[in-house]
Fold this protein.
Amino acid sequence: MVIWLQIVVGLMMASMADNSIGSGGEDWSGPHQAMMRAIHTDVARNRQVLGRDHLSEPVALALAKVPRHEFVPKELRGNAYANHPLPIGHGQTISQPTIVAMMTDLLALDPEDRVLEVGTGSGYQAAVLSEVVDRGQVFTIEIVSELARTASKRLARLGYQNVVVHTGDGYLGLPDDAPFDGIMVTAAADKIPAPLLAQLKPGGHLVMPVGGQGETQWLTLVSKDQEGEIDRRVVLPVRFVPLTGDHTK
Ligand code: SAM
């Protein structure tokens, strides 16, 4: 266990070193390492969420690699690695790093998987997924066209070649690209959209905050077995912006 941890920490430090220098020469490695420590503490404290006290190695490495400072507005970069959500414009937010980590881990993805994210926002979560499914593909859909456009340009500039950004209402999923090994919804709704359940592969997982605004929302993990039977597990109280669009009314 100790040797395994040393290897993971060593790989994480190497990953951060590659990506921690900002365009103005700023070194983000200290804040990035502090963010990783905060995530690991939260995961260990909430071990019931993942059923273990640590992140899977691919998810830890992805979080250590993705330069979060590139995904937040310039004026908030000083807080990019703080373990809380930040505004990204249009009344939307980039999610808290611990929540990004847990939601990614709950999908139990393999490197060649195809994954759908509903709610691209800044593109940060899509970049983390891109690292985890580095031989697969990430499809992400955003309802605010300006956010989709900016995220698409940013992801291309940063070299995330296996991410496709769509503009539209993610309630409907992406039927032309389905089925998906994993589906993540990063906005909350009263119920899990039926089209997304239909687009989940047998053996796949879907993770999403369920609950209305002003009520407790529950991060919910849905698993579809090989016979297509659905199992739901409520994992954690959370707070997310609402899933919008005509279909949620
Ligand atoms: N994953 C994002 C990131 O890494 O920055 C953060 C997502 S933010 C918490 C939720 C996003 O969901 C917002 O950008 C919002 O515009 C988007 N959204 C809300 N309803 C949507 C819908 N029906 N279809 C697609 N995107 C939607």
DSSP finds eight helices and nine strands in the chain. Residues 192 and 210 are 7 Å apart (CA to CA). The longest helix spans residues 2-19.
